[in-house]
Amino acid sequence: MTAIQSKDLSLYYGDTCIFKDLDISIPKGKITVFIGSNGCGKSTLLRSLARLLKPKSGQIVLDGSDIGSLSTKEVARRMSILPQGPSAPEGLTVLQLVKQGRYPYQNWLQQWSLEDETMVRRALELTHMDEMAERTVDSLSGGQRQRAWIAMTLAQGTPTIMLDEPTTYLDLAHQIEVLDLLYDLNQQEQRTIVMVLHDINLACRYAHNVVAIKDRAIYAQGQANTVITEKLILDVFDLHCQIIKDPLFQTPLVVPFGKGIKPVIETLQPVTVS
User: Fold this and answer.
1) Which CDD domains does the record cross-reference, listed alphabetically (predicted)?
2) Where are the alpha helices (DSSP H) in 61-213?
3) Strand pairing partners for 12?
């Protein structure tokens, strides 16, 4: 089953074509990660699938419905998105920010409810932001601020969550913490997770479905063990590497050596990732 699907999708910025007649399917209940070099179009594709960027032509289908036919609130009940580098008004507290995630469920008949309160508190606890709930967002460190935004996304309670570089500004420990959280949401609640990540090794570790983008087109898509090859890394990132097996997770581990520094090849024995 697919959560999101594009059909003959064409995206433009002004007169510049970003994608032409693109067909892509995002599997339901899985973690999909977009990878690719800077400027390849992965964030643009994510924004378009979330209806933040209007396509020139083509169709995007969300849970079986043409996304263009759905109201903004209906889309927000089915899909939440955390864009890259979001900003909050000065003086807004973490609690106030996270409460914004419940906006799609509010109307003149239904005001703030116990369910809303429960979802907000749970999102704060999951992201370990409950003790910072009364602090202003602009007083937080970059990593804390990112976790606050992720909490708002979780409070929205949607079956599909889309995130553009969610580990930005986070140190390694908090990167793993955030990705573990998203993995748990996928495993325990079958939420569909779609992310843009720069770290290929973390993408291999957490993704069920890796989408490699090159020159504003899909270069390859599938399981990391099948998709991630030395040729792909060279073609997509213009980077020489050797791929070995992660000793803990048995996923592909990219060992880069670039162009300037040559490794002692004899000490790096190739490992076939099965």
Assistant:
1) ABC_Iron-Siderophores_B12_Hemin
2) 72-78, 94-99, 114-126, 142-155, 172-189, 200-206
3) 17
pTM, rounded to two decimals: 0.87
CA distances from 18 to 60, 186, 191, 218 (A): 16, 30, 29, 12
Each domain of the chain, given as residue ranges in start order, spans 90-156
pLDDT (tens digit per residue) in 216-274? 789 999 999 999 999 999 999 999 999 999 999 999 999 998 666 666 655 555 556 55
Contact 228, 207 (CB under 8 A): no
Contact 163, 195 (CB under 8 A): yes
Count CB neighbours of 102 within 10 A: 20
Residue ranges of the alpha helices (H) in the chain? 42-49, 72-78, 94-99, 114-126, 142-155, 172-189, 200-206, 224-227, 230-237
